[in-house]
Design goal:
- The complex is a heterodimer.
- Chain A contains nine helices and ten strands.
- In chain A, 30% of the residues lie in helices and 15% in strands.
- In chain A, strand 6, helix 5 and strand 7 form a beta-alpha-beta unit.
- The radius of gyration of chain A is 19 Å and the shape is globular.
- In chain A, the strands form three sheets. A five-stranded parallel sheet of chain A has the order 7-6-8-9-10, sandwiched between helices.
- Chain A has a domain of 139 residues: Rossmann fold (3-Layer(aba) Sandwich).
- Chain B is α+β, with helices and mostly antiparallel strands.
- Among the domains of chain B are: 111 residues, NADH:ubiquinone oxidoreductase Nqo5 subunit (Beta Polymerase, domain 2), CATH 3.30.460.80; 238 residues, Cytochrome-c3 Hydrogenase, chain B.
- In chain B, helix 8 packs antiparallel against helix 14.
- The longest helix of chain B has 29 residues.
- The chains are: A alpha/beta, B alpha+beta.
- Chains A and B meet through helix 1, strand 6, helix 5 and helix 6 of A and helix 3, helix 4, helix 7 and helix 8 of B.
Chain lengths: 250, 499
């Protein structure tokens, strides 16, 4: 007993007191800023492994970007990745960062269904389905609930059964072999239910986009309530995105 | 000669691999595996070749530090005697060849599907149609779990046959995670795309699969990574081992209801993965490993932080580990649970931790060293019992070992030289192999190029390919309630298996 108390004491304070304002350590690559410098745009777009960069004007689609940073190494004057991790949104268009824009990525209040803040603002139970995920977003979703990030303090938790859930968090590019199971799981969640796509594999297919082993037809059937970019997502991106979704009102 | 003997990360002309008749091919490879614990098959695969199938088999000899490569050409739907009849360690490879090309093995014990790839031979067989083993009895019942599990975890289906609470048999069906990665390696032509693919094979082994790919690619392009690059790769591999082993110890505490251990090991993992973020901007090291360059050179400041990190980590780690391994309620659940005997482990050809927990000295860091493992003179941690306790203890010991290695490596601060990256092209008509000991075990990547140096085949083997069968054997005669702790003690990859 005394040993256990000693161990507890030695851990010190581990939780992040304010997850909305925490600073991430080191050189985290978050929301990019694109300058108006004139460069060879075709050369820039050619670098990207997932075709996330479009030209005239230069835009980066955070739903596709793997955050590898190769474009910023090649064109440091043109592209800079800031440490702004608050990049989740419910509006797919807002994930596309335009040249010259240095505005935070936010949710579009017009697109938030009103039942979300009515029912889920104090408690949100989620069922996670990995549909071809590589276990990196899964590790980070688990980390959301650990003693550091402690998402449970906001009443946001992952549950074992879809029957107990208010929504589904999908990771991975959605493989053909998981398509049916994903549908069955979604159908088992009682309405109203929300859908969150975590990671660029889920949002766009990521590096797997166009693979014949995928079946992404599920996504065209339903409205997506939140896109959380990253490869993998950062726990702070996820927690802040979900908090904004359940607290923001029209 | 019936084979060509090469080293790890060596590229050879494809024509240098002897082509044997199938019967000599079988005889040679089966007989070279007779000394079971010092030889094992690191890869055996087929690829389409002039309307037929070319089979390439790679047997590693751990004592001589070599890999013996041989090949044979067969008709795609040929009726063949199996290697498996003589050595069970080949069972999964032959099932894979059967699934991909329709090759019939007449004496294979169970030619079941492996991962239902999109380009499989028999497309009428779907993932829902897996032929599970059945026992007809009024006393027995079946329990089906998955593909979606209770936690935040990847999908796979587990079918138990139980006698009351006791597990008689477990069969594991995988394939739900199949993303067609091997095919994408051929279709995506840019080096950065292929590197990104390698990093996304298994997100918990980013450094391991990343290093396997870049070492292979550099070998194909005849590029020799300098010491600084090798240093960064070796440190990344050992830090990944520390991070994931720590997370696994946390999860194992969770599964036996030891909350303090779960929380403390969980929080100890955070500074290690946060170090990756400080180093390369990504907590799981995506973006760090690149062929012919390092975008994030290790600086003196980074090295200093690493020293501090390890000192802080070690103190708290030792304290909680000592408590955990002396707690009767933890030991009662760990000891003699989920045993894989040395005979079973050798028979099914397990690799990595799953082999070393049962007394098999199998570790690429010592048998086929790459990067700076030549200098570290690695001695594998070996356990004998093959139970959950062995797997937990091994993680603890390997973490200690990795900390020592990292400390040794950072004595020597690199110059931070600027590199422009790799400019060469892959050699034409060649074969290359790369072996890396990831935290889970041995990873093998193989590549075959055509006459203009373009990839015609890319083969990935994750340690989970072999070790899932060890998990299935481990739970036999255990209570079904001990399945979670058995499964977590192996912590195998679904996506690494399904590709």
């Amino acid at each position: 007993m005394l040993d256990n108390l000693k161990i507890l004491f030695h851990q010190g304070r581990q939780y992040i007191p304010d997850v909305t304002a925490a600073q991430v350590p080191g050189i985290f690559k978050g929301r990019p800023v694109i300058s108006s410098e004139i460069i060879n745009e075709a050369e820039l777009a050619e670098i990207c492994p997932t075709n996330a960069i479009s030209t005239a004007p230069v835009c980066i689609d955070l739903g596709k970007c793997t955050f590898c940073g190769e474009c910023a190494f090649a064109f440091p004057g043109k592209i800079k990745f800031t440490t702004d991790y608050r990049i989740a949104t419910n509006d797919r268009g807002r994930l596309v960062i335009m040249e010259g824009s240095d505005k935070p990525v936010e949710l579009n209040p017009e697109l938030i269904r009103k039942e979300i803040s009515k029912y889920f603002s104090g408690s949100l139970k989620l069922r996670q389905v990995s549909a071809g995920g590589d276990n990196s977003c899964e590790l980070e979703l688990n980390a959301c609930g650990n003693v550091n990030f402690d998402m449970g303090r906001f009443g946001i938790e992952f549950v074992a059964s879809p029957r107990h859930a208010d929504g589904i968090v999908i990771t991975g590019p959605i493989t053909e072999n998981m398509a049916q199971s994903l549908q069955i799981c979604y159908d088992a969640i009682p309405a109203p239910k929300i859908i969150i796509l975590a990671g660029i594999d889920a949002i766009s297919g990521g590096i797997f986009e166009g693979s014949l082993a995928l079946n992404r037809s599920f996504l065209s059937k339903y409205k997506i309530d939140l896109y959380v970019p990253g490869n993998p997502i950062h726990p702070l991106t996820f927690i802040n995105g979900v908090l904004e979704l359940i607290r923001k009102k029209k | 000669m019936s084979y060509i003997s090469i080293g790890n990360n060596e590229t050879i002309r494809i024509s240098a691999i002897p082509e044997l008749s199938y019967s000599s091919f079988l005889e040679f490879n089966v007989s070279s595996m007779i000394k079971a614990n010092s030889s094992h098959c690191v890869n055996y695969f087929g690829y389409p070749y002039k309307g037929k199938i070319k089979l390439i088999c790679c047997i590693a000899n751990d004592d001589l530090h070599t890999i013996n490569i041989s090949s044979s050409i067969v008709d795609s739907q040929a009726q063949l005697p199996s290697f498996t009849k003589h050595n069970l360690a080949f069972e999964k490879y032959e099932r894979e060849i059967h699934e991909n090309f329709g090759t019939q093995y007449v004496d294979h014990p169970w030619l079941k599907p492996v991962r239902f790839p999109f380009n499989r031979f028999n497309k009428s067989l779907r993932v829902a149609d897996y032929p599970f083993f059945k026992i007809e009895s009024e006393e027995l019942h079946e329990v089906g779990v998955g593909p979606i599990h209770a936690g935040i975890i990847e999908p796979g289906h587990f079918r138990f046959i139980c006698n009351g609470e006791q597990i008689l048999h477990l069969e594991i069906q995988l394939g739900y995670q199949h993303r067609g990665i091997e095919r994408l390696f051929l279709e995506r032509k840019k080096l950065l795309q292929r590197t990104t693919l390698a990093e996304n094979i298994a997100g918990d082994s980013v450094a391991s699969h990343g290093v396997a790919f870049v070492n292979l690619w550099e070998s194909l392009c005849n590029y020799h990574a300098d010491r600084d690059l090798q240093l960064a790769r070796t440190i990344a591999l050992e830090l990944e081992r520390i991070a994931i082993h720590t997370g696994d110890l946390s999860a194992m505490c969770t599964d036996v209801g030891y909350q303090l251990g779960s929380a403390v090991f969980g929080r100890l993992r955070t500074p290690v993965i946060n170090y990756f973020q400080k180093w390369c901007g990504n907590r799981l090291a995506k973006g760090l490993i690149r062929a012919g360059k390092n975008n994030y050179p290790l600086t003196e400041a980074l090295m200093g932080e690493l020293t501090q990190l390890l000192d802080d980590y070690e103190k708290d780690f030792e304290e909680i580990a000592e408590e955990q391994f002396s707690l009767p309620s933890v030991l009662a659940r760990f000891e003699k649970t989920g045993v894989v005997t040395a005979e079973q482990a050798a028979m099914i050809g397990t690799v990595g931790m799953s082999a070393r927990m049962s007394g098999i000295k199998r570790d690429i860091r010592s048998s086929h060293p790459h990067d700076l493992y030549y200098e570290l003179q690695h001695q594998p941690v070996i356990k004998k019992q093959g139970d959950v306790y062995s797997r937990a203890r091994m993680r603890k010991k390997e973490i200690n070992q990795s900390i020592e290695y990292v400390r040794e490596l950072i004595q020597d601060i690199p110059m931070g030289k600027h590199r422009i990256g790799l400019s060469g092209y892959p050699a034409p008509d060649s074969f290359a192999i790369s072996l890396v000991e990831g935290w889970r075990g041995e990873i093998c990547h193989c590549a075959v190029t055509d006459e203009i140096g373009e990839l015609v085949h890319y083969k990935i083997k994750d340690p989970s390919f072999h070790n899932w069968l060890a998990t299935a054997l481990a739970v036999r005669n255990n209570e079904i309630s001990d399945f979670p702790i058995c499964n977590k003690s192996f912590d195998l990859s679904y996506c690494g298996h399904d590709l």
